[in-house]
Amino acid sequence: MHVAVLGTGLLGRAVAERLRATGHTVTVYNRTRARTEPLRAMGIQIAASEAEAMRDADCALLLLADAVAIRSVVLNAESHAALAGRTIIQMGTIGPEESREFHTAISAAGGDYLEAPVLGSIAEAKAGALLIMVGGTRGQMDRWNPLLRALGREPRLIGTIGQAASMKLALNQLIASEIAAFSLSLGLIRRSGVAVELFMSFLKESVLFAPTFEKKLPRLQHRDYAHANFSTRHLLKDVNLILKEGEKRGLVTKSLDGIVDLLENTIARGHGADDYSAVYEEIDPRP
């Protein structure tokens, strides 16, 4: 297929590389064009505008930061005409109501819209191992499953538009809560003089263990948050979406209030673009 990838941040670039490696023709567009130039050497086409990127593509994948960016890139006057007869697949993390709004707007412009947010980051995208949640119809799922399977082994239909977005928020809530919980436990262990290796051995033998703890441990031990797979700034954006959706549905979200403060303070320390595990700096500050 000929695929347009709109947004070449950390995940967008990896998705574009994977699609090209699996034989697809790929055209990319990013508002900061310099970020797209390294892709040219891989045989990926660079578009000067979002409309140009979509013009000859069978579909466009949105890997943009948030709903504001999507409105700016996809629903502006220039790109509006390019939506007619084209499928837009939204793969970032946005709110369910935002996703439904895009469905309405893109359908009104003559396009087709489905959501397919993913769990996983750069390594999973390049290996075709993303977990893909689809919100749309069974017909859309069948139509686009071959393309999605280039990025994830078993894309799954979650339900209608907005339900996959809700699934993604539920999973990202765990990302935020688990890193905060693990950071506090690790800080207590280190300040108590208990061997981290002993703590991890007990943890791994228990039902409390999550693989992300072991994955993030080296970053926390060395206080090294560079080369982010998922930034602190983006996690804060997602947590705020979770709070909004949870409150809308009558859930008690007080457990996230402290995490919002931690993330905001971590960003204030200058770690907005760093890996979200930098929240450890706020929980267990350097002496």
Structural overview:
The chain has 287 residues and is α/β, with parallel strands linked by helices. 52% of the residues lie in helices and 12% in strands. The protein contains 13 helices and 9 strands. The protein has helices spanning 10-21, 50-55, 67-74, 77-80, 96-108, 122-127, 138-148, 163-192, 196-204, 211-222, 232-248, 254-271, 280-283, and strands spanning 2-6, 25-29, 45-46, 59-62, 87-90, 112-115, 118-119, 131-135, 156-159. Helix 8 (163-192) packs across helix 10 (211-222). The chain is globular. The model has no long low-confidence stretch (mean pLDDT 96).
- Stretches with pLDDT under 50, minimum 5 residues: none
Distance between the termini: 54 Å
The number of helical runs is: 13
Order of helices and strands: EHEEHEHHEHEEHEHEHHHHHH
Record keyword descriptors for this entry.
alpha/beta, Rossmann fold, N-(1-d-carboxylethyl)-l-norvaline Dehydrogenase, domain 2, single chain, 52% helix, six-stranded parallel β-sheet, 9 strands, globular, 287 residues
